[in-house]
Amino acid sequence: MEVHFVAALERLEPSDAVRLAALADEAGFAGTVLADRFQPWLPQQGNASFVWAIAGAVGQRTTGAVTVSAVPGYRQHPASVAQASATLAALCATDENPDRHRLLLSAGDAIDEHVVGGYWPEAHERAARLFESAEIIRKLFSGSAKGNDVRHAGAHHRLETSRLWTMPPRPPGVQVWAGGPMTARRAGREGFGIVVQTAPRERLQALLRAFRDGAREGGHRPGRTTAHVQLSWAPTDDQALENALTDWPMAGLRFPRGDIRSPFDVVQLARAVTADDIRARIPVSADPAVHAAHLRSLAALGFDTAHVHNVGRAQDAWLEAYAQTIAPEVGA
Protein backbone atom coordinates (compact mmCIF):
# COMPACT_ATOMS: atom_id res chain seq x y z
CA MET A 1 0.00 0.00 0.00
CA GLU A 2 1.31 3.43 -0.95
CA VAL A 3 1.30 6.05 1.82
CA HIS A 4 0.95 9.71 0.82
CA PHE A 5 1.36 12.89 2.87
CA VAL A 6 -1.62 15.24 3.19
CA ALA A 7 -0.58 18.90 3.23
CA ALA A 8 -3.58 20.73 4.71
CA LEU A 9 -3.75 24.04 2.86
CA GLU A 10 -6.24 25.35 5.43
CA ARG A 11 -3.43 26.11 7.82
CA LEU A 12 -0.22 26.11 5.80
CA GLU A 13 1.29 29.15 4.17
CA PRO A 14 1.86 28.39 0.47
CA SER A 15 5.65 28.27 0.76
CA ASP A 16 5.42 26.09 3.87
CA ALA A 17 3.15 23.62 2.08
CA VAL A 18 5.73 23.24 -0.68
CA ARG A 19 8.58 22.92 1.82
CA LEU A 20 6.77 20.20 3.78
CA ALA A 21 5.92 18.32 0.60
CA ALA A 22 9.63 18.21 -0.23
CA LEU A 23 10.43 16.94 3.29
CA ALA A 24 7.69 14.32 2.97
CA ASP A 25 9.26 13.17 -0.28
CA GLU A 26 12.57 12.70 1.54
CA ALA A 27 10.84 10.99 4.49
CA GLY A 28 9.58 8.17 2.30
CA PHE A 29 6.03 9.21 1.49
CA ALA A 30 4.96 8.12 -2.00
CA GLY A 31 3.42 11.47 -2.80
CA THR A 32 1.65 14.61 -1.60
CA VAL A 33 -2.10 15.20 -1.42
CA LEU A 34 -3.67 18.66 -1.66
CA ALA A 35 -7.34 19.67 -1.49
CA ASP A 36 -9.10 22.53 -3.26
CA ARG A 37 -10.41 24.84 -0.53
CA PHE A 38 -11.76 28.39 -0.66
CA GLN A 39 -12.05 28.82 3.11
CA PRO A 40 -10.47 27.12 6.11
CA TRP A 41 -12.64 25.11 8.49
CA LEU A 42 -11.65 27.33 11.40
CA PRO A 43 -10.73 31.04 11.28
CA GLN A 44 -7.55 30.41 13.25
CA GLN A 45 -6.29 28.00 10.61
CA GLY A 46 -5.77 31.14 8.57
CA ASN A 47 -5.20 29.88 5.03
CA ALA A 48 -6.90 28.59 1.88
CA SER A 49 -4.44 28.99 -0.99
CA PHE A 50 -5.27 28.07 -4.60
CA VAL A 51 -4.57 24.38 -4.87
CA TRP A 52 -3.47 24.22 -8.50
CA ALA A 53 -0.74 26.82 -7.97
CA ILE A 54 0.59 24.93 -4.94
CA ALA A 55 0.39 21.60 -6.77
CA GLY A 56 2.51 22.90 -9.62
CA ALA A 57 5.18 24.07 -7.21
CA VAL A 58 5.05 20.77 -5.29
CA GLY A 59 5.53 18.86 -8.53
CA GLN A 60 8.75 20.74 -9.19
CA ARG A 61 10.15 20.07 -5.70
CA THR A 62 9.26 16.38 -5.34
CA THR A 63 9.56 13.08 -7.19
CA GLY A 64 6.42 11.29 -5.94
CA ALA A 65 2.77 11.52 -6.89
CA VAL A 66 0.97 14.87 -6.78
CA THR A 67 -2.69 14.28 -5.96
CA VAL A 68 -5.32 17.01 -6.05
CA SER A 69 -8.80 16.66 -4.59
CA ALA A 70 -11.06 19.01 -6.55
CA VAL A 71 -14.75 19.93 -6.56
CA PRO A 72 -16.15 20.31 -10.09
CA GLY A 73 -19.41 22.01 -10.90
CA TYR A 74 -19.68 25.02 -8.58
CA ARG A 75 -16.75 27.43 -8.30
CA GLN A 76 -15.13 25.64 -11.23
CA HIS A 77 -16.84 24.11 -14.26
CA PRO A 78 -15.74 20.51 -14.90
CA ALA A 79 -13.95 21.70 -18.05
CA SER A 80 -11.78 24.05 -15.98
CA VAL A 81 -10.94 21.25 -13.55
CA ALA A 82 -10.03 19.01 -16.49
CA GLN A 83 -7.78 21.70 -17.98
CA ALA A 84 -6.01 22.33 -14.66
CA SER A 85 -5.52 18.61 -14.06
CA ALA A 86 -4.22 17.91 -17.57
CA THR A 87 -1.80 20.84 -17.33
CA LEU A 88 -0.50 19.68 -13.94
CA ALA A 89 -0.11 16.13 -15.26
CA ALA A 90 1.87 17.38 -18.25
CA LEU A 91 4.05 19.51 -15.98
CA CYS A 92 4.77 16.66 -13.55
CA ALA A 93 5.19 13.76 -15.96
CA THR A 94 8.64 12.23 -16.34
CA ASP A 95 9.96 9.40 -18.46
CA GLU A 96 10.28 7.27 -15.33
CA ASN A 97 6.86 8.24 -13.95
CA PRO A 98 4.42 9.57 -16.55
CA ASP A 99 1.46 9.16 -14.16
CA ARG A 100 2.62 11.34 -11.26
CA HIS A 101 -0.57 13.39 -11.07
CA ARG A 102 -3.79 11.84 -9.79
CA LEU A 103 -7.18 13.55 -9.67
CA LEU A 104 -9.76 13.05 -6.93
CA LEU A 105 -13.26 14.45 -7.38
CA SER A 106 -15.54 15.38 -4.50
CA ALA A 107 -19.18 16.43 -4.23
CA GLY A 108 -17.91 19.34 -2.14
CA ASP A 109 -18.91 21.29 0.95
CA ALA A 110 -21.00 24.43 1.20
CA ILE A 111 -18.26 26.21 3.13
CA ASP A 112 -16.23 26.40 -0.10
CA GLU A 113 -18.79 26.21 -2.88
CA HIS A 114 -21.65 28.45 -1.73
CA VAL A 115 -19.43 31.53 -2.13
CA VAL A 116 -20.34 31.93 -5.81
CA GLY A 117 -23.96 32.46 -4.84
CA GLY A 118 -25.54 29.46 -6.56
CA TYR A 119 -28.13 27.10 -5.15
CA TRP A 120 -26.55 24.57 -2.80
CA PRO A 121 -28.29 21.27 -3.53
CA GLU A 122 -29.17 18.39 -1.24
CA ALA A 123 -26.88 15.37 -0.97
CA HIS A 124 -28.53 13.24 -3.66
CA GLU A 125 -28.23 16.02 -6.23
CA ARG A 126 -24.63 16.72 -5.23
CA ALA A 127 -23.84 13.07 -5.95
CA ALA A 128 -25.53 13.29 -9.35
CA ARG A 129 -23.57 16.44 -10.18
CA LEU A 130 -20.34 14.73 -9.09
CA PHE A 131 -20.78 11.80 -11.45
CA GLU A 132 -21.87 13.97 -14.36
CA SER A 133 -18.81 16.18 -13.77
CA ALA A 134 -16.56 13.12 -13.60
CA GLU A 135 -17.95 11.91 -16.92
CA ILE A 136 -17.32 15.29 -18.57
CA ILE A 137 -13.73 15.28 -17.31
CA ARG A 138 -13.16 11.73 -18.50
CA LYS A 139 -14.62 12.57 -21.92
CA LEU A 140 -12.33 15.58 -22.20
CA PHE A 141 -9.29 13.53 -21.21
CA SER A 142 -10.11 10.71 -23.59
CA GLY A 143 -11.17 12.83 -26.55
CA SER A 144 -8.33 15.31 -26.21
CA ALA A 145 -5.74 12.53 -25.98
CA LYS A 146 -7.00 11.36 -29.38
CA GLY A 147 -7.11 14.88 -30.83
CA ASN A 148 -10.91 14.97 -30.89
CA ASP A 149 -13.45 17.57 -29.81
CA VAL A 150 -16.11 16.56 -27.30
CA ARG A 151 -19.55 17.86 -26.33
CA HIS A 152 -21.88 17.31 -23.41
CA ALA A 153 -25.48 18.22 -22.61
CA GLY A 154 -26.62 16.83 -19.29
CA ALA A 155 -28.98 17.49 -16.42
CA HIS A 156 -26.57 19.88 -14.70
CA HIS A 157 -23.79 20.88 -17.11
CA ARG A 158 -23.20 21.75 -20.74
CA LEU A 159 -20.02 21.61 -22.75
CA GLU A 160 -19.82 23.02 -26.25
CA THR A 161 -17.36 21.71 -28.83
CA SER A 162 -14.15 21.58 -26.81
CA ARG A 163 -10.82 19.88 -26.34
CA LEU A 164 -7.80 20.25 -24.07
CA TRP A 165 -4.81 21.46 -26.04
CA THR A 166 -2.24 20.69 -23.34
CA MET A 167 -2.27 16.99 -22.50
CA PRO A 168 0.13 14.68 -20.63
CA PRO A 169 1.48 11.45 -22.16
CA ARG A 170 -1.39 9.62 -20.45
CA PRO A 171 -4.58 11.15 -18.97
CA PRO A 172 -4.61 11.39 -15.16
CA GLY A 173 -6.29 8.64 -13.19
CA VAL A 174 -9.63 9.72 -11.70
CA GLN A 175 -11.15 8.69 -8.37
CA VAL A 176 -14.33 9.91 -6.70
CA TRP A 177 -15.02 10.36 -3.01
CA ALA A 178 -17.51 7.74 -1.83
CA GLY A 179 -19.42 8.52 1.34
CA GLY A 180 -21.64 5.43 1.25
CA PRO A 181 -22.19 2.08 -0.49
CA MET A 182 -24.43 3.52 -3.24
CA THR A 183 -21.75 6.01 -4.31
CA ALA A 184 -19.03 3.37 -4.06
CA ARG A 185 -21.04 0.94 -6.18
CA ARG A 186 -21.76 3.57 -8.81
CA ALA A 187 -18.10 4.57 -8.96
CA GLY A 188 -17.13 0.97 -9.61
CA ARG A 189 -19.87 0.51 -12.19
CA GLU A 190 -18.79 3.64 -14.08
CA GLY A 191 -15.11 2.72 -14.02
CA PHE A 192 -13.73 5.21 -11.51
CA GLY A 193 -11.56 4.56 -8.45
CA ILE A 194 -12.74 5.58 -4.99
CA VAL A 195 -11.54 7.52 -1.96
CA VAL A 196 -13.18 6.90 1.42
CA GLN A 197 -12.80 8.43 4.85
CA THR A 198 -11.51 5.91 7.37
CA ALA A 199 -14.24 4.39 9.52
CA PRO A 200 -14.87 1.22 11.53
CA ARG A 201 -13.66 -1.94 9.84
CA GLU A 202 -17.16 -3.20 9.01
CA ARG A 203 -18.08 0.01 7.20
CA LEU A 204 -14.87 0.03 5.18
CA GLN A 205 -15.45 -3.61 4.20
CA ALA A 206 -18.97 -2.72 3.04
CA LEU A 207 -17.70 0.18 0.94
CA LEU A 208 -15.00 -1.92 -0.72
CA ARG A 209 -17.46 -4.74 -1.36
CA ALA A 210 -19.98 -2.35 -2.96
CA PHE A 211 -17.23 -0.83 -5.10
CA ARG A 212 -16.03 -4.20 -6.36
CA ASP A 213 -19.60 -5.36 -7.00
CA GLY A 214 -20.18 -2.23 -9.06
CA ALA A 215 -17.01 -2.76 -11.08
CA ARG A 216 -18.12 -6.31 -11.84
CA GLU A 217 -21.55 -5.08 -12.94
CA GLY A 218 -19.97 -2.51 -15.23
CA GLY A 219 -17.46 -4.95 -16.66
CA HIS A 220 -14.51 -2.98 -15.31
CA ARG A 221 -11.39 -3.96 -13.48
CA PRO A 222 -11.69 -2.21 -10.08
CA GLY A 223 -9.82 1.09 -10.00
CA ARG A 224 -7.61 2.47 -7.27
CA THR A 225 -8.96 2.34 -3.71
CA THR A 226 -7.74 5.00 -1.28
CA ALA A 227 -8.33 5.51 2.44
CA HIS A 228 -8.14 9.08 3.72
CA VAL A 229 -6.55 8.71 7.16
CA GLN A 230 -6.72 11.34 9.88
CA LEU A 231 -4.61 10.82 12.98
CA SER A 232 -3.01 12.85 15.72
CA TRP A 233 0.63 12.25 16.55
CA ALA A 234 2.74 14.43 18.85
CA PRO A 235 5.69 13.83 21.19
CA THR A 236 3.27 13.07 24.06
CA ASP A 237 -0.21 11.56 24.23
CA ASP A 238 -1.57 14.64 25.98
CA GLN A 239 -0.20 16.92 23.28
CA ALA A 240 -1.61 14.69 20.53
CA LEU A 241 -5.07 14.97 22.07
CA GLU A 242 -4.77 18.71 22.65
CA ASN A 243 -3.66 19.23 19.04
CA ALA A 244 -6.70 17.39 17.72
CA LEU A 245 -9.11 19.28 19.96
CA THR A 246 -7.55 22.64 19.18
CA ASP A 247 -6.45 22.36 15.57
CA TRP A 248 -8.84 19.85 14.00
CA PRO A 249 -11.96 19.38 16.16
CA MET A 250 -13.96 18.74 12.96
CA ALA A 251 -12.67 15.16 13.19
CA GLY A 252 -14.90 14.69 16.23
CA LEU A 253 -18.13 16.19 14.88
CA ARG A 254 -20.97 13.70 15.12
CA PHE A 255 -22.83 14.83 12.00
CA PRO A 256 -22.02 15.62 8.34
CA ARG A 257 -20.53 19.05 7.78
CA GLY A 258 -21.30 19.46 4.08
CA ASP A 259 -23.97 22.14 4.63
CA ILE A 260 -21.96 24.37 7.02
CA ARG A 261 -21.24 27.71 5.33
CA SER A 262 -18.87 29.65 7.57
CA PRO A 263 -15.67 28.94 9.51
CA PHE A 264 -17.20 30.95 12.34
CA ASP A 265 -20.11 28.51 12.49
CA VAL A 266 -17.67 25.61 12.74
CA VAL A 267 -16.07 27.25 15.78
CA GLN A 268 -19.42 27.25 17.57
CA LEU A 269 -20.21 23.65 16.62
CA ALA A 270 -16.74 22.43 17.58
CA ARG A 271 -17.23 23.59 21.17
CA ALA A 272 -19.34 20.49 21.72
CA VAL A 273 -16.57 18.12 20.61
CA THR A 274 -15.04 16.15 23.48
CA ALA A 275 -11.86 14.14 23.91
CA ASP A 276 -13.95 10.98 23.70
CA ASP A 277 -15.40 12.14 20.36
CA ILE A 278 -11.90 12.55 18.97
CA ARG A 279 -10.59 9.23 20.29
CA ALA A 280 -13.63 7.42 18.91
CA ARG A 281 -12.91 8.60 15.38
CA ILE A 282 -9.16 8.88 14.85
CA PRO A 283 -5.99 7.34 16.35
CA VAL A 284 -4.50 9.68 18.96
CA SER A 285 -1.08 8.66 20.27
CA ALA A 286 2.57 9.60 20.67
CA ASP A 287 3.50 5.99 19.89
CA PRO A 288 4.35 5.60 16.19
CA ALA A 289 3.57 1.88 16.47
CA VAL A 290 -0.10 2.74 17.00
CA HIS A 291 -0.23 4.64 13.72
CA ALA A 292 1.80 2.02 11.86
CA ALA A 293 -0.62 -0.67 13.02
CA HIS A 294 -3.57 1.43 11.83
CA LEU A 295 -2.02 1.76 8.38
CA ARG A 296 -1.26 -1.96 8.22
CA SER A 297 -4.89 -2.72 9.03
CA LEU A 298 -5.98 -0.67 6.02
CA ALA A 299 -3.54 -2.49 3.79
CA ALA A 300 -4.94 -5.79 5.08
CA LEU A 301 -8.43 -4.69 4.03
CA GLY A 302 -7.16 -4.25 0.49
CA PHE A 303 -6.67 -0.51 0.07
CA ASP A 304 -4.10 0.43 -2.57
CA THR A 305 -3.28 3.82 -1.09
CA ALA A 306 -3.51 5.73 2.20
CA HIS A 307 -3.58 9.53 2.34
CA VAL A 308 -2.33 10.39 5.82
CA HIS A 309 -3.17 13.68 7.53
CA ASN A 310 -1.60 14.31 10.93
CA VAL A 311 -3.95 16.93 12.36
CA GLY A 312 -1.38 18.43 14.74
CA ARG A 313 0.84 21.44 14.17
CA ALA A 314 4.30 19.89 14.44
CA GLN A 315 4.51 18.72 10.84
CA ASP A 316 8.35 18.73 10.69
CA ALA A 317 8.56 16.48 13.75
CA TRP A 318 5.82 14.26 12.35
CA LEU A 319 7.72 13.76 9.09
CA GLU A 320 10.86 12.88 11.03
CA ALA A 321 8.94 10.37 13.17
CA TYR A 322 7.35 8.86 10.08
CA ALA A 323 10.69 8.41 8.33
CA GLN A 324 12.40 6.86 11.36
CA THR A 325 9.72 4.61 12.82
CA ILE A 326 6.59 4.28 10.67
CA ALA A 327 7.83 3.98 7.09
CA PRO A 328 9.92 0.88 7.90
CA GLU A 329 6.89 -0.71 9.61
CA VAL A 330 4.50 -0.21 6.70
CA GLY A 331 6.98 -1.03 3.97
CA ALA A 332 6.95 2.49 2.52
List descriptors:
332 residues, eight-stranded parallel β-barrel, Luciferase-like_dom, TIM Barrel, alpha/beta
Q: Could you please describe the fold and organization of this structure?
A:
This protein is an alpha/beta fold and 332 residues long. The chain has a single domain (2-330), classed as TIM Barrel (Alpha-Beta Barrel), CATH 3.20.20.30. Helices cover 45% and strands 16% of the residues. The protein contains 12 helices and 10 strands. It has helices at 14-27, 51-61, 78-92, 110-113, 123-145, 181-189, 201-218, 237-247, 263-270, 275-281, 288-301, 315-330, and strands at residues 2-6, 31-35, 65-70, 101-105, 150-153, 158-162, 173-177, 193-197, 225-231, 305-310. The strands form 2 sheets. The protein has an 8-stranded parallel barrel, surrounded by 7 helices. Strands 5-6 form a two-stranded antiparallel sheet. Strand 8 (193-197), helix 7 and strand 9 form a beta-alpha-beta unit. Helix 2 packs parallel to helix 3 (78-92) and helix 11 crosses helix 12. The longest helix has 23 residues, at 123-145. The protein is globular, with a radius of gyration of 19 Å. It starts with a strand and ends with a helix.
